[in-house]
Specification:
alpha+beta; Aminoglycoside 3'-phosphotransferase, Chain: A, domain 2; 2 domains; 4-stranded mixed beta sheet; 12 helices; 49% helix; 16% strand
Length: 346
């Protein structure tokens, strides 16, 4: 049997780790359902129009679709088309309901300073096909922050984390305030539900989940003490791409107005879990977490971090619930680590 290190790249990245994560992102039943939408003639007509507008080439000779991520209410595809010997790509997101609001939101974000020529950016929204609920956007080239954090390149991870922190700080500072408001008190029903389900999974989880939920409810920020800023809603390493000179955040489906610590907590807990996956320790990426916070604070200072303990511990409880109920196979060991991590924060 060969050593697992034989499969790693020169930077320490294990492709198998990414493959497992990608497979979990692509439930077959959702991919099949949304793929059928893109088989319709109306989709091909809009695609022809887009390729003519973007690259001056209509009627591609060949079109290929590759699913990237699927949920029960949406699926993201890479759409690649060939004209002669030239290939072009864009991203198509298919939703089960009208989400033209995402297209509008992305346009506003681009206009606020996150466009194609910006160092800190988002993909350019290209069109929205309302009849099929398909959002077309620019295909961004670059390396996933997630892939970098799954590797062993310490210096690259620290720089990546710093740039991710700066992107988020700028978005919180100059991004448009749009969408619904996500108030901290709104999380209380979720806290109670997650804690109850974690307890039901087994006796070993009862004490920790009860204690964590009680501590969270005791410190939830009240309306008169809440911060608010433009919110990404899903700011995690798999939703950030980097080139040598640019940092681009994707997946803007959940933009809202929220306490800035919520987005910070999502990213931090995700990075720590990547360290757990790659190195077997929740502390393995602490240097990267600190670099992320330092990058953020260089732009916005410490004030936005005031409620970080609550939101980080809340995210730990959420992840514990997901480790038990939303994985291909339950992961009770990871759920226990998440509960202990949450308790250490509050």
């Amino acid at each position: 049997m060969s050593d697992s290190s034989d499969t790693k790249n020169s930077d320490g990245f294990d492709p198998k780790a990414l493959q497992v994560m990608m497979e979990e992102m692509l439930p077959a039943q959702h991919v099949s359902r949304f793929s059928a939408v893109l088989a319709q003639e109306e989709f091909r007509t809009e695609l022809d129009r887009l390729f003519l507008a973007e690259w001056g080439q209509a009627n591609p000779d060949e079109v290929r679709l590759r699913p990237l991520k699927a949920h029960k209410d949406r699926c993201t595809f890479e759409i690649t088309a060939r004209k002669g010997n030239q290939w072009r790509s864009l991203i198509g997101k298919v939703h089960d309901v009208d989400r033209s609001d995402i297209f509008t939101a992305m346009q506003r974000i681009v206009d606020s300073g996150f466009g194609r020529g910006s160092e800190f950016a988002i993909p350019q929204p290209l069109a929205y096909l309302s009849s099929l609920h398909v959002l077309f956007e620019e295909k961004v080239e670059g390396r996933w922050a997630m892939q970098i954090f799954l590797g062993d390149g310490r210096d690259e991870q620290i720089e990546t984390a710093r740039r991710c922190g700066i992107w988020l700080a700028r978005f919180h500072s100059i991004g448009p305030r749009q969408g619904s408001s996500d108030l901290p008190l709104d999380s209380v029903p979720h806290i109670r539900r997650w804690a109850e389900l974690v307890k039901e999974f087994g006796d070993s989880f009862v004490a920790k989940s009860e204690l964590l939920s009680h501590r969270l409810e005791a410190i939830v920020p009240r309306p008169n003490d809440a911060e608010s800023s433009p919110g990404h809603g899903s700011y995690i390493p798999e939703n950030v791409l980097l080139t040598d000179s640019r940092t681009i955040a994707i997946d803007l489906d959940k933009c809202d107005v929220a306490d800035p610590s919520r987005d910070l907590a999502s990213f931090i807990i995700s990075v720590r879990r990547l360290g757990l996956k790659q190195r077997g320790s929740i502390r393995a990426r602490d240097e990267a977490v600190q670099a992320f916070l330092d990058g953020y604070k260089t732009e916005r200072g410490d004030a936005a971090l005031r409620h970080l303990p609550f939101f980080a511990a809340n995210e730990c409880l959420h992840r514990a619930y997901r480790d038990l109920y939303k994985r291909t196979s339950p992961m009770p060991a990871w759920a226990n680590i998440m509960l202990e991590e949450g308790l250490s924060m509050v």
